[in-house]
Design goal:
By secondary structure, this protein is α+β, with helices and mostly antiparallel strands. It contains eleven helices and nine strands. The strands form three sheets. The chain has a four-stranded antiparallel sheet, with no helix packed on it. The radius of gyration is 21 Å and the shape is globular. The structure holds acetoacetyl-coenzyme A (CAA). Acetoacetyl-coenzyme A binds next to α4, β3, α6 and α11. The site of acetoacetyl-coenzyme A has 25 residues, from α4, β3, α6 and α11.
């Protein structure tokens, strides 16, 4: 067996176990979670019990120590049945990678052990006027004695209000732009932290997205997890590792939609035979399978580069996110087409998957930003 293009046995086993868990404990609630725009508590409970709510947390801090490819497989398999639920391990990774990359040992001990026990960790970069142009942020952290005072607000924060911990990027020197940004950990219980109303979204309805407000939030310097002025680089380095998890999510959504469409095409009869027997339908399904497999190969390659810290990670991470999420949008749209009228109503999950796929092209950097990042990193290897 050529190990280059086949998954080692431990990842195959991981996929089988996560798929079994997702089919049994997450999929049965996916429709209700979407229909009622409610947090997938059943998924959180099941993932936490299996050590999969934040599987990337190192063993020394009480986690599973899953590597980047392992986390990708977990997220892919959960997203195959419920995209909202797959944000649980994805957000927890996004929120805590800055700590893992920039924090000292006592900071890691303090927060990663809590994360492993089920306390969520969100990432606060975007603001209402600083989305793609993240360095234009206005949230300020001002030195006061040995500590800091934070004022401002962050927008589009996944799991705001649910998570206990927040990595917050704030400007400590507005004159310096991107080089005047610093990263801190803020806790939900810190006086002065509050949350906006949940956004009413097209998809990912089970994942709460809210603003986070900081009103004279006083924290010690032990909350700072980057060098002063080193926060933006840390935030970007984080995204290099975590955009791959969005690729994984898109991959799972696409795989789920493809499976529903294929099953339907074999059962649905028109003109006296299954619609699968018509070449027009076969070609759509063949294209879906081809594109999903290409997205999977690119995503897994990016995950391995993340684990090894390879020089071309920035390119591969952006490429995998961009490619897989564009594939998810196309595959889910075509899946709705294969199901026709039945695809457009919520008796089947493909319309939910199509709505969910759309967000993956937008968050963790729009696919236009991914192309910009790729272009800036052409030829780096
Ligand atoms: N690794 C390390 N450092 C990096 C870096 C990287 N990949 N990319 C940039 N930097 C550092 C560099 O040190 C650079 O300084 P130098 O000039 O010394 O090289 C500094 O950052 C500034 O970089 P740029 O000049 O490239 O910055 P820019 O202002 O042109 O913008 C950008 C860069 C790529 C457009 C960035 O703003 C960006 O990624 N925007 C999109 C924001 C985004 O992805 N938001 C997602 C929010 S999270 C979310 O959506 C999660 C969720 O809900 C689940």
């Amino acid at each position: 067996m050529d190990p280059l293009f086949s998954l080692p046995e431990e990842y195959v086993a991981l996929r089988e176990s996560v798929r079994a868990l997702a089919d049994k404990k997450i999929q049965p609630f996916a429709h209700d979670v979407d229909a009622n725009a409610r947090f997938p508590q059943e998924a959180l409970d099941a993932l936490q019990a299996a050590g999969l709510a934040a599987p990337h947390v190192p063993v020394e801090f009480g986690g599973e120590g899953a590597d980047s490819l392992g986390v990708v497989i977990v997220i892919e398999e959960v997203a195959r049945v419920c995209a909202s639920s797959s944000l649980i391990p994805a957000v927890n990774k996004l929120g805590s990678v800055p700590l893992m990359l920039g924090g000292n040992d006592s900071q890691k001990e303090r927060w990663l052990t809590q994360l492993a026990k089920g306390k969520g960790f969100s990432y606060c970069l975007s603001e209402s006027e600083a989305g793609s142009d993240a360095a234009a942020m206005k949230t300020r952290a001002v030195k006061k004695g040995d500590g800091w005072v934070l004022n401002g607000s962050k927008k589009w924060i996944s799991h705001a209000g649910v998570s206990e911990f927040y990595t917050v990027l704030a400007s400590t020197d507005p004159e310096k732009g991107a080089k005047g940004i610093t990263a801190f950990v803020v806790e939900k219980s810190d006086p002065g932290v509050s949350f906006g109303a949940p956004e009413k979204k097209m998809g990912f309805k089970g994942s709460p997205t809210r603003e986070v407000y900081f009103d004279n939030v006083e924290i010690g310097d032990d909350r700072r997890i980057s060098e002063i002025g080193g926060g933006f680089g840390l935030a970007m380095k984080t995204l290099d590792h975590t955009r791959i998890t969005i690729a994984a999510q898109a991959l799972g959504i696409a795989q789920g939609a493809f499976e529903v469409a294929t099953k339907y095409a074999k059962e649905r009869r028109q003109f006296g035979k299954p619609i699968f027997d018509f070449q027009a339908v076969q070609f759509m399904l063949a294209d879906m399978a081809m594109e999903i497999e290409a997205a999977r190969q690119l995503t897994y390659a990016a995950a391995v580069k993340s684990e090894r810290g390879e020089r071309d990670l920035t390119f591969f991470s952006a490429a995998s996110k961009c490619f897989a999420t564009d594939v998810a949008m196309k595959v889910t749209t075509d899946a709705v087409q294969v199901l026709g009228g039945y695809g457009y109503v919520n008796d089947y999950p493909v319309e939910r998957m199509m709505r969910d796929a759309k967000l993956t092209q937008i968050y963790e950097g729009t696919n236009q930003i991914q192309r910009l990042v790729m272009a800036r990193n052409l030829g780096v290897n």
